[in-house]
Amino acid sequence: xxxxxxxxxxxxxxxxxxxxxxxxxxxxxxxxxxxxxxxxxxxxxxxxxxxxxxxxxxxxxxxxxxxxxxxxxxxxxxxxxxxxxxxxxxxxxxxxxxxxxxxxxxxxxxxxxxxxxxxxxxxxxxxxxxxxxxxxxxxxxxxxxxxxxxxxxxxxxxxxxxxxxxxxxxxxxxxxxxxxxxxxxxxxxxxxxxxxxxxxxxxxxxxxxxxxxxxxxxxxxxxxxxxxxxxxxxxxxxxxxxxxxxxxxxxxxxxxxxxxxxxxxxxxxxxxxxxxxxxxxxxxxxxxxxxxxxxxxxxxxxxxxxxxxxxxxxxxxxxxxxxxxxxxxxxxxxxxxxxxxxxxxxxxxxxxxxxxxxxxxxxxxxxxxxxxxxxxxxxxxxxxx
Length: 385
Description:
The protein is an alpha+beta fold.
């Protein structure tokens, strides 16, 4: 569900490039939701389940079409998620319609998910989140293979150092250095690697430096003075350092190394999310850190401003969040279906209709509460409330 997606977006710092927000937000949500629902759809089709609707978004249909097997593929007005509706479902949450099931003939039952073996129903439920994890690994693999920005600690900086970006309030950028410039010298001394540049900047004492660069084959010299900035390490320890504000370019990884790093990055995000939820339960984390729809939109706009690879990276993070959130044992989510199937496996029969209905209402109430909470957090954080 979309509200659960927002819970991990607070990991990103954001600015507000307004022209990019709407298209970037729609791109991220559409890609993530499409692959999630495609996972459900593909496994259901494999087991012979009839799919009535494949929808990106909720509410009134904008545009759609029927495929050869009678599935209605459509885009709807409210881009806060999506759903696949199977034969015999009463609504997009895949609750069954008992009356409709009773009236089904043998042929209709053969195409209904609700009459499939337990293991097949469980695989269909799990396929959406798994598709999100696969999508994230694929995106990270592409990013690690083609991006010259640092996306993993295993990457090595390009030598001689190539400028790939700038930090906030960069004195080098203010002096006229541009992305793509190659740093060749500092005060006439040759620079072969980024560590050489860091050493000379650190020893400069903040004085102006003559920076020799190569810009598209043309030698230039630019004068810039480093400034002292505050650095916070992973343990929360603060220190000061002299910096020009340059972000170096990095060598892309080979495809096998990129795939391994992509799988590691996906697992790291899951571990971090589990850790956050654990700290939330024991009171070591705050719900104020959660971000909602506005946070996702704002992050999407910011990442889009940094380029398509950056936006893809955000899409991968959101995809992992969607996959993980939907595995939580909350009725109306995929994890809720898996929870019910677990009870069915233990009891030898499905839970009673009353128990399932109560669970569904509680789950829906929780998801709606979470969406309101995260949206309120966004309004407060952006000084809109």
